[in-house]
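Archive entry. Fields below.
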Amino acid sequence: MGADQPGDRKRPVKSASKSMTDQNSSLSHLELETPEKPFLDSNELVINMGPQHPATHGVLRVILRLDGEKVLGLECVIGYLHRGVEKIGEHRTYTMFNPYVDRMDYVAAVSNGLGYCETVEKLLNVEAPPRAQHVRVILTELNRIASHQLWLGTHALDIGAITPLFYTFRDREEILKIYEKYCGARLTTHAFRIGGLQYETYTGFEKEVKNFLNFFRPKIDEYEELLTTNRIWVERTKNVGTISAQDCIALGVTGPVLRASGVKWDLRKAQPYANYKNFDFEIPIGQNGDTYDRYLVRMAEMRQSVRIIEQAVDALPEGPIIAKVPKVMKPAAGEVYHSIEAPKGELGYFIVSDGSTQPYRVRVRPPSFVNLQALDLMCRGQLVADVIAVIGTLDIVLGEVDR
Amino acid sequence: MVAKFKGTCGSGITPLTYAGQDYMVVDRSLIPEILQVLRNEEQFDYCVDITAVHYPKREKQFDVVWVLYSFARNERVRVSTQILDGESLPSSVPIWAGANWLEREVFDMFGIKFDGHPDMKRILLPDGWKGHPLRKDYGILQQDNEWVQINLGIESGQ
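PREDICTED_STRUCTURE:
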């Protein structure tokens, strides 16, 4: 191999990268990292994936730099779904902004609402009454199950297994029915209010939730039967998109992805909010930090959620559902950061109050946005087909990434 | 912990508590050192969030806020500093790799630059976007109106 050959090989890459992307976008990040030794008889190729792609779970654009089928690096282009949620927050009262947060992670709207309501409650220095706390836990954990079901169905579909999608959507329907009966909405529920709940649970709520749990418990086994020992599934997920605990922490990755890498950290246990400290549950963790472990962790999390809901329904106390909150909310000037364990990881709200009826600044720390940063690292050295698996296993929702 | 810093750094640090949460307001000049010490000596190994707040009436217009968490201590701390409009900050990507996109978002939304960042460009908004939307003096309708004026020849799209 002549000394000038690597240089010759680089040239088509640059021209390809320019023609594949729009002129404004710079590929500095990709161009910076040229491999020291090019592969024998191979050409590097820059390929654009998305934003309209069925396996990117929304409008995510990924610019891949490939060597044959091998991924050398990638860059995410995001923002296609940016709606300026944080700016909207500055122009709405605390109460008016509440439904907007549901539109971020729209498959786990209840979790978003819980985080926002609790943060404002901290600013107002009020606490939701015990009954409200219990109902909040029940609905949030149901939401975690629903979110994981949607993840499982679409993730398996991306990898090529169609059946789990029908199973999970069939069972998720039961959760959405409970939401619909409780507050009239299925997805963007706006279930919680600052200070507690607006609606008392409907007649037969406890029974229906319990029926769901009894119905759902064997269904998790059913999902596992389809996939856990399925040879194709195992081959497609084991040792794919591996990330170490150290890298997770450095990149700020949280949620099931962090736990699958072996870090036993869950905000529900580490810094309990709502009334999670009253419930008995475990934090499932993985060892290898690969796609298969993340699958196992999320499956185990669904079982733990069932456990929590069961305890919460059994111990549902009587009493008021909303604390005394002023009709016109004017929290004293100050700033508060509060975060909860959303199905995707740490969901934080940083709210600055200037003493008026509108928040001076609302900052949302979305788990998907920060987790997506790890995509580049996780995909390096993998095959193109594995990029799909890794995007699926990160469980991103673009509504939350872009806000 | 904040008291310990107060001993070494003196008047540059003001420890504060609001609603049971500790945070410290640090002088701009001490920021690189403080962040480094928090990461290396105080075990704040997880950079949760970086964000900013705009106060147009103040001389130092921006508050930049770091939210840090330590797995070993199970503790959260917020560090904030005040900077002038146009002033830049040292990037914390060498300290926490995860700061990359967070700093890009702060740049995108507020126009605050981070020196030494590997890829300082917009992240959520398109590259050709004018202005930084989360500044308080940003005209929300300006982009919309400009577009309809140029493309449709009407005064306002509203």
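CURATOR_NOTE: Residues 99-110 of chain B form the longest helix (12 residues).
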